[in-house]
Fold this sequence. Notes:
Rossmann fold, 7 helices
Amino acid sequence: MSVKVTLLRHGETKANRENIVLGTSNVGLTSVGKSQAYASALRISKLSPDAVYTSPYNRAIETAQYISKLTGLEPKPKPELQEMDSGEMEGTDATRMTELFPEYMARWKRDASTTRPPGGETLGEVHSRAWKSTLEISNEHDGEHVVIVTHMFPIQGILCNALGLHSNQYNKISIDLGSLSSIYISSADTSVQYMNSTQHLENI
């Protein structure tokens, strides 16, 4: 098996702009987010993708649809690619997390991978399901180029696995809105070509 996987983080939403915790809320893109999505799709279309998979959330689907318009490829939603379920913290001002959830944030700083937000899921669970889904997709597309449109935590999880990093090292990897990352997955090894590439967004 040998597969090229391009990872695309969705474009900007209002919650991203306002620094609000955004997990399962099903919001769409801002005008800036739409411009980011188009620029990303234009770059991806020049790389001749063979298939497009996406998180089922609107912000990811809307981003993936720009790729569809330029390539004719129909995005396939995969629930395993959705963003982390933040539970009761959903919609919180991210700058007030330590104030509002002090015990949780203290545990998160010690071991993010196993710390569960009230009513939500752990970072380790997010990383595990995203990586498992990526491998399943890769097995279905031997010799092809696959695009996965998803969110920050799933992309960080996929890259942590590709690099052999523990989930707690997620914060060593920056993933900007509309950014592209690329990995190669083969039967023998997994390698990272680039991460968090944003050169296509310079004029936005």
